[in-house]
Amino acid sequence: MSDSVRTMAVNMAYDSPWLAQGVNNYEFKMYGFIPSEQRQSFEYIVNSKFLLTLAETGLVGLTALVCLLVVTSCRAFNLAKRGLPLGTGLLCSMIVVVLDMNVESYEAGSLLLNSWILIAIVAALWSSEEATPSAVSL
Asked: Are 128 and 135 in contact (CB under 8 A)?
């Protein structure tokens, strides 16, 4: 990712730190934040979901996204620790989702859908009786 794209995203968030530019407004407002040292005549959307979230929804949105990912990952880790075999798979899937958010624009509909399905599965297993320590047989 070029430094100018990262700088543009950070500048958008800096302009309005709490709520930033608004959901799905990055493409419309990015031209007003292109750094002066920009050498190319075209610009890409920032390819990090975390920076895109920061630019569009500010610190509030970024904090919510990080909390969602941390809570889901911790619960998947605890499911794996309880001996539920699916917990390990869910934890590995969460790691891949977080890593992918750092290098992709997260525009792919299937990845977005799979992320929400993964979060829903972890939440469902977390509250199920099969995932409790007394139900797990060693």
From this structure: no
Which residues does 84 contact at the CB level (< 8 Å), separation at least 6? 125, 130, 131, 136
Please state the domain count of the chain. 1
Q: Are 5 and 44 in contact (CB under 8 A)?
A: yes
CA distance 80 to 99: 20
In a domain, 68, yes or no: yes
d(CA 98, CA 55): 18
Would you call 71 exposed, middle or buried from its count of C-beta atoms within 10 A (0-12, 13-18, 19+)? middle
Please indicate, yes or no, if residue 19 is contained in any of the structural domains: yes
How far apart CA 23 and CA 82 sit, in angstroms, is 38
1, 45 in Cβ contact below 8 A?
no
pLDDT tens, position by position, 2-20: 677 778 888 888 888 888 8
pTM, full prediction? 0.73
